[in-house]
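Same chain as my last thread, 153 residues:
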Amino acid sequence: MSSSVSHCHLWSNEQLIDREVHHRRKIASYITGLTFSTVAAIEIPIVVPIAGFEAYKIHSHHKKLKVIREELTKRNLSPNEKKKRDILIPVTATAALHLVAIGIADAVNVVPDAMQAIIHEPIQQSFSLSVSIANNSNLSCDIYLLILCCFCY
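reply #2:
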């Protein structure tokens, strides 16, 4: 157990509620990261340790959240009401970070062709972002990453 949570009985009510919200947001962020990492790990096995780390962090934050909620119950306080921003901000930030990372990996050709097909085809169909060249091949545009990042923020 983390020393920061083991002495939560010394915290003020406001600090306790702030930490409860903090851990709730971290869990949302790591769940999103775990989802992206798991999908990426199918094609890029080197990502498996990252997914394992994110699973560990989810478990760790759940344990800390449980201790904090027990302390809230002892003090007859209710946890803060869940707000949209408690989920949307961490999920959006994590998703944007992973999309940029996938875009960078794609730009330096780290992403295997099968993963590129999974990423490119649905987005190209949605935004019609393929450009025909004279020899009838398609040059895929990575502009979709920019568009998706703009939507995320």
